[in-house]
Specification:
It is a single chain. With 248 residues, the protein is an all-alpha fold. The chain has helices spanning 2-7, 15-34, 42-62, 91-98, 108-114, 126-141, 149-169, 190-193, 199-209. It has three domains: 2-66 and 116-169, no CATH class; 72-113, no CATH class; 175-204, no CATH class.
Length: 248
């Protein structure tokens, strides 16, 4: 604490309490994950996911405050619901970018803030959950009261990664036995074709093995209507039943 005061760094008031809470709860969750066997069911992973969610709530309070828009100029401004990929969520700055205003700064700083907690990529397995928990324990071991804010942000992302993995493992298991999609339905043609039983994986294989571009559907041509076209009637003398053209 004396070194922190001499360096001029100010420790937030709630950081020692929250950090102590993590040091008390994370080892228990890690032991719970290590105790899971290969035949663990969704109910056991659901209990782990609930514990990791509580840990994530504490870790999220330790990381630096994030703005709602990811914009340095308008941190509390309106949020753009249709923000393109790579832009900030600030509606004011995005409006200026759309009209080509050169005074608007770049979006490199807001790009990282827009992706707060990226979800891990499948497959979601027991080994992936164990690796995520080892990463959480390593980051927590190196943390102190005077650690940089970036270290606390990395810890929150690592805990969120472990939580998502446990949540996916807690979903009801399908009969397909797929590691990438644990809750996927069974492909009804799996027994006949002898291929992957997961319906989602089967769809990906079909799209990858399809030869050539899709054939467009032919459109029926509609007759063109000429607006304002009028048929000129024949002169009265040329009519067969007209007043001057009596039938002979």
């Amino acid at each position: 604490m004396d070194e922190e005061r001499r360096s001029g760094r100010r420790v937030p008031a709630n950081r020692p309490y929250l950090l102590g809470e993590l040091n008390r709860t994370v080892p228990g969750v890690d032991d719970r994950v290590r105790a899971l066997g290969g035949e663990a069911g969704p109910a056991e992973y659901e209990d782990v996911a609930d514990r990791l969610w509580n840990v994530f709530l504490v870790a999220r309070e330790l990381e630096p405050t994030r703005s709602r828009t990811g914009c340095d100029v308008h941190p509390d401004g309106p949020v753009d619901p249709l923000a393109p990929e790579g832009w900030t969520r600030c509606l004011l700055c995005n409006r200026n970018r759309r009209i080509g205003d050169p005074s608007v700064p770049g979006v490199e700083t807001g790009r990282a803030l827009g992706q707060r907690y990226p979800a891990p990529a499948p497959p979601f397995t027991r080994e992936a959950l164990g690796e995520a928990m080892r990463r959480v324990c390593e980051l927590l071991l190196d943390l102190g009261h005077g650690s940089p804010d970036e270290d606390f942000a990395r810890l929150a992302q690592a805990v969120h990664r472990a939580f998502v993995t446990a949540r996916e493992l807690s979903r009801p298991r399908g009969t397909s036995g797929c590691a990438r999609h644990p809750g996927a339905p069974l492909d009804p043609t799996a027994e006949e074709t002898g291929v992957t039983a997961c319906l989602f994986c089967r769809g990906e294989e079909t799209r990858h093995t399809r030869q050539g571009p899709p054939v467009p559907r032919a459109r029926r041509t509609r007759p063109r209507r000429r607006i304002g076209h009028r048929v000129t009637p024949p002169p009265p003398g040329d009519r067969p039943d007209g007043p001057s053209g009596t039938s002979r």
